[in-house]
Amino acid sequence: MTSNWAAFTTAEPDLAKTAEERFGAFTHHVLATLRKDGSPRTSGLEVRFRNGELWLGMMPNSLKALDLRRDPRFALQANPGSGTEMAGGDVRISGRAVEVTEPETMALYTGKTEEVEPPESPESFHLFRTELTEVVRTYVENNAYLVVQIWKPGQPVRSVKRE
Predict the structure, then answer these.
(1) Which residues, listed in sequence order, are joined to residue 77 by a DSSP beta bridge?
(2) pLDDT tens per residue, range 38-97
(3) Over the stretch 32-49, which tens digit does the pLDDT of each residue have?
(4) Is 16 within 8 Å of 143 (Cβ atoms)?
């Protein structure tokens, strides 16, 4: 079962807000994809939350884009920032990436309209919308407990607390 960002936000608004804040705190994050041989590949990536979707945009023929075309599974880790403070905790998102090539949809992502400027062509970059399978937030509570919040489509957030 998968879900888009809007459905996740409706189901779990507090966790979605925290996740967006964590991804919004820094520009670059870490994307994990699968290579042809099945081994993991990690790459830097910028993400955008727009129109109820979490979008992944990539340069033409980048290895991560080719990986996602072949196998759409991904994991995305929010940049933890410098030091060890990690305000808001650590956030990871897993799911499937679906490539989008329709000019109208690409225009929604870039914020361009035909009245202002024609949308970039599908050849100028790869655009993927995400279908979420899991969102995980890990943080320290009261300097005493490690808390892991896990959300999966169709289920409420499950919290695990460890000393």
Answers:
(1) 30, 92
(2) 999 999 999 999 989 999 999 989 999 999 999 999 999 999 877 666 667 899 999 999
(3) 999 999 999 999 999 999
(4) no
Count Cα neighbours of 7 within 13 Å in the Cβ-side half-sphere. Answer: 16
Nearest to 36 by CA among 67, 74, 72, 75: 67
Cα separation values, 93 from 40, 60, 64, 123, Å: 16, 23, 16, 27
Q: Give start and end residues of each alpha helix (H) in 100-148.
A: 103-110
Which residue has 């409706």 as its token pair?
Answer: 10
CA distances from 58 to 17, 79, 111, 149 (A): 24, 17, 16, 29
**Dihedral angle, C-alpha 58, 61, 62, 66, nearest 10 °:** 100
Q: How far is CA 32 from the centre of its chain?
A: 11
